[in-house]
Amino acid sequence: MRARRIRAIALRLGGALFVLWAVATLTFFAIHLVPGDPAQAILGGPGSQAPQETLDRVRAEYGLDQPLVVQYAAMLGRLLTGDLGTSYSLKAPVAELIGGQLLGTLTLALAALALAWVIAIGLALWSSAPGRVARGVAGAIELTAAALPHFWLATVLIAVFATGLGWLPPVANGGASGLVLPVVTLAVPLAGFLAQLMREHLLDALERPFTVSALARGETASGIRLRHALRHAALPAVQLSGWAIGYLISGAVVVETIFARPGLGRTLLRATELRDVPLVTGVVLVVALVYVLMTVLTDLVAALADPRVRTAAA
Amino acid sequence: MSDLELRAGVSPADAPRAGDGRLGGRRRMPRPSVVLAAAFVGFLLLAVAWPGLLETAPPDAISPAEAFQAPSASHWFGTDESGRDVYSRVVAGTAPSLLIGVLATAIGLALGLLLGGIAALGGRVLDFLIGRVNEVLFAFPGILLALLVIVLWGPGPVTATVAVGLSTAPGYARIIRGQLLAIRGSGYVEAARVLGHGRAKILSAHILPNALVPIAALATLGIGQAVVWASSLSFLGLGAQPPAAEWGAMLSAGRTYLGTAWWLTVFPGLMIVATTLATTVLGRALTARDGARR
Amino acid sequence: MSGAALTVRGLRIGYGGTAVVRGVDLDLAPGRIVALVGESGSGKSVTARALLGLAGRGAEVEAERFELDGEDVRGAGERRWRRLRGAKVGLVLQDALASLDPLRPIGREIGDALRLHLGLRPAAARQRVLELLERLELPHPALTIDRRSGELSGGMRQRALIAAAVVLDPPVLIADEPTTALDVGVQATVLQLLREAADRGTAVLLISHDLAVVSGIADEVLVLADGAVVERGPTAEVLGAPRHPATRALIAAVPTEVPRGVPLLEAARLDDPNAPLPAAAAPPAGSTADSAPILEASGLRRVYRSRGSELVAVDDVSLALRPGRTLGLVGESGSGKTTLARLLLALERPDAGAVRLDGGPWSESSEAARRPDRRRMGAIWQDPYGSFDPRWGVARLLRDALSVGGQESDERAVHELLDLVRLPTAIAASHPLELSGGQRQRVAIARALAARPEILIADEPVSALDVTVQAAVLDLLDELQRERGLAMLFISHDLGVVRHMSDELAVMRHGRVLEHGDAGRLFAAPQHAYTAALIRHSPRLAWGGDAHGPASTR
């Protein structure tokens, strides 16, 4: 039993490593198989008209004159030591650039995840409550929340709470008040998705025989929701946390741009605009790493919380 | 007493069954939300096919004298910085905005069908391989894959479409694989095998027809999200570029005047939200109808 | 007030003006077990729920008298009911896997009542639960208390479910189908625990569709049909001399003692248990135990592998099906019965061993080579609805089956098939969704026989059907077998059903056939300890001696 569980965890970690390797490889070859001269990009794009010897010097400096396989091996070797290469546009180590931005984005994403959970649990409990009206209203709120694009929600929130009412700053200021609008922007659509998922499972749990058993013991209606049904509803949502973090980080691209907040998303967007291949690759790899870690973590949590998951995986 | 008891307290076998054995109320009137959603989709289709029918002014007619007018009887959604009628521009923007969403969904769905279909029906080795590929693609969450595509091929509406399509494909592949596997393992496919039907007959008579409705529902649900992602890219300046009357691009351009002319951002955004809502409601209605028969 | 734990007079329950229960009287006394039996839809479960105030918000519950432990509970509100549930009346549902929250440790589930009614703190509640688990003889209570239901064996989790209902020693215990869908060994445990509860002075109401379960344990039986009690009395009297058709139909559904070849519905119509049984129909000509087998399996083995763990579903199984004869296959859930059926149908490939059809290769052929011979084999399953394409109506389902057999597939042929399974021809125009469970299974049988097969594989064909329909479907299968000389494999977890249907019997456990031989002989003198236990635990009608005389098989 124990050996099997260790084996299952080892398999899961091995799978995670495979995904990271594949992400690195895929990005590497995609970039090198596409027409375009990296040396030109380093020197400021195709319009730079750099002389041939400058190009050659840059190629040698970045190892671009080596065969593709050698470059690939070198990249893998560097990755193992945590070296993500040098940014074309900022001429600084990618790892350092990302390291400086990671915390801000993770703070944003995790705060949004926490808020989304709070809203989602509230909405799910409300929309599974008795009464057609409550169900209809809460259901409509969930549906609308999930349909809100980040960029529009952010714009409207700024118009109302910053420009209009003046309660909160329209751009990030490094303090807690500057964090409110970006976090709300990211959290609301995610909460809509989570609430829909949770409500479905909540209603499903309320129809299962164990709720009758609990009622027959004298349990109250709210006790059944909180002590029984909510667990069953939360579990599938927990298992989506990997996806949710990915969704939040990609939402951060928009949100950080709108709120002029430094972070991974904004760095990624700038790098995309400048076609800074090492920086984009680096960000993508780091996000993939966060995603993979989160999935492994949630799988383990789910297996602990639900013996059925464990037997299914074994 | 809460209605919890009503849901849980009576076993289905003993509860009075309204119209026992009938096809779960299939001939009932559709719900108002579905009617509303269908009506809005009708409006969108009209805006795509004959925008002139709905426009109240030429969408690109510049009239500096009428710049920044608030919504009124003559300009329902107000006017922009060049005095163009926002309502007419929103109508004119329906085609490009929806086109990106629909094409992206088509690309994602086609790839998803291919991958999911091969994984489900092509044997264990292919299933394993595609499963791993999918796992890798899932590690590029949201628009990350799209940004990667854009960095490789440069920004623009075509890249944005392909990018959104690509990033939705693994999700479709996973769901379609699951659906095909469920159908392939179903009692009726088993029964057809026992009767002596061949693979081709089972595929064409049972598996594909039964997968069709769920996949159509999936596509309907997906269009809304694709429109959101595609307009996000346009908003970031990586998709359609202003002065194109695309909703995301319009919103991006209007953001400069947020303090003075809120209608420049609110109305294009509302269109996106309404489109997503309508497709979600319709997609779910389709799923529910299909589910009632199983 | 007498010592009655529960007194109900004229209980009526309706939903939106439709009466579901119409005037039920019920008396439960301490130490006695009263059984409420009836087929599904008879109103027995609604009655049970109403006794806990759980009939549902839309329910209109009325009674002339409704006294629980001496307290008039007519018109009690939700708050008052909450105080009574668990303390004065406990409920045991079927299958603990579904009836205990799979995400909570059983200790918390059992301790809930202590927390809710006595306000005990977790530590104190835990102590009480431990004591209870010890009293109910759960092994290793200190470990078990922190397990969730899915981590326990079937018998242990069923004990936990009962523990959760009796932790406060309520004077009334209601058990709603407590043994349905359980393996016989676990069934026996549950019945014993209910008996013990009664012996401690609890008044037990046992609700079941299965008279065999009831007959061994209940002191009194009430038969419910269409919301009214149609027959009541001491168990031996009601089962020994059934007066109402509903009772007889329930008896017919327990075929253990009815010899092979005797139609169940006719056997149950006997008013006098001592009257002679109707004659058993003659077996089809030329079907003997040593005629040449049409389908023969030897050394079959099937292993499922997933992520490094192995499950041997079928292990070294050999058997033979002969024309006109039925091989019964019995075993508990997970014993490999269904996998074996799939191997015989060549839906799966065996890892070792082979199946031969009429002496020629079957499992070893390619699917293309097998296809022409597929029409010689038909199959029916537990869930007929799932075996129909949801987009197809009855006529299309049958035409499809007729066409693969190379038969005419016109309207007349479809009607002939429906005639064969005693269904009105008008059903051809319906969708299976509009049919009852019994009708669906008849359509499935019609489809299986459309291509005029020589072999029929029946995998739990009646387990999902209402009890009263079961007997009719079994009779139909028996009759069709005789008409067509079918070689049949009849799979069931229900020993009684298998015994009635089979000439030969095979007992399966953990993928292996433990015992295999003539059905009568195997029943009379089981060689294997497991078979003996299966026969012993298998509930059978008992009302003072073997009413039908010594069970004779041909």
From TrEMBL, chain A:
InterPro entries: BPD_transp_1_N, MetI-like, MetI-like_sf. Its main location: membrane. PANTHER family: DIPEPTIDE TRANSPORT SYSTEM PERMEASE PROTEIN DPPB-RELATED (PTHR43163:SF6). It comes from the Bacteria. PROSITE patterns: ABC_TM1. Belongs to the binding-protein-dependent transport system permease family. Pfam families: BPD_transp_1, BPD_transp_1_N. Keywords: Cell membrane, Membrane, Transmembrane, Transmembrane helix, Transport. GO terms for molecular function: dipeptide transmembrane transporter activity. SUPFAM superfamilies: MetI-like (SSF161098). Residues 102-302 form the ABC transmembrane type-1 domain. This is ABC transporter permease. The chain crosses the membrane at residues 9-31, 102-126, 147-167, 179-198, 234-259, 279-305. It is a multi-pass membrane protein. The lineage of its organism: Bacteria, Bacillati, Actinomycetota, Actinomycetes, Micrococcales. GO terms for cellular component: plasma membrane. It is found in: Cell membrane.
From TrEMBL, chain B:
The chain crosses the membrane at residues 34-53, 98-121, 133-152, 158-176, 211-240, 260-286. InterPro entries: BP-dependent_transpt_permease (IPR050366), MetI-like (IPR000515), MetI-like_sf (IPR035906). SUPFAM superfamilies: MetI-like. PROSITE patterns: ABC_TM1 (PS50928). Residues 94-283 form the ABC transmembrane type-1 domain. The keyword Cell membrane applies. GO terms for biological process: transmembrane transport. Residues 1-25 are annotated as: Disordered. Keywords: Cell membrane, Membrane, Transmembrane, Transmembrane helix, Transport. It is found in: Cell membrane. GO terms for cellular component: plasma membrane. It is a multi-pass membrane protein. Belongs to the binding-protein-dependent transport system permease family. PANTHER family: OLIGOPEPTIDE TRANSPORT SYSTEM PERMEASE PROTEIN APPC, PEPTIDE ABC TRANSPORTER PERMEASE PROTEIN. This is ABC transporter permease. It comes from Agromyces mediolanus (Corynebacterium mediolanum).
TrEMBL record, chain C:
Residues 6-251, 295-535 form the ABC transporter domain. Signal peptide: none annotated. One of its GO terms (molecular function) is ATP hydrolysis activity. It comes from the Bacteria. Keywords: ATP-binding, Nucleotide-binding, Transport. CDD domains: ABC_NikE_OppD_transporters. GO terms for biological process: peptide transport; transmembrane transport. Gene3D superfamilies: P-loop containing nucleotide triphosphate hydrolases. NCBIfam families: PRK11308.1. PANTHER family: D,D-DIPEPTIDE TRANSPORT ATP-BINDING PROTEIN DDPF-RELATED, TRANSPORT ATP-BINDING PROTEIN. Belongs to the ABC transporter superfamily. This is ABC transporter ATP-binding protein. It comes from Agromyces mediolanus.
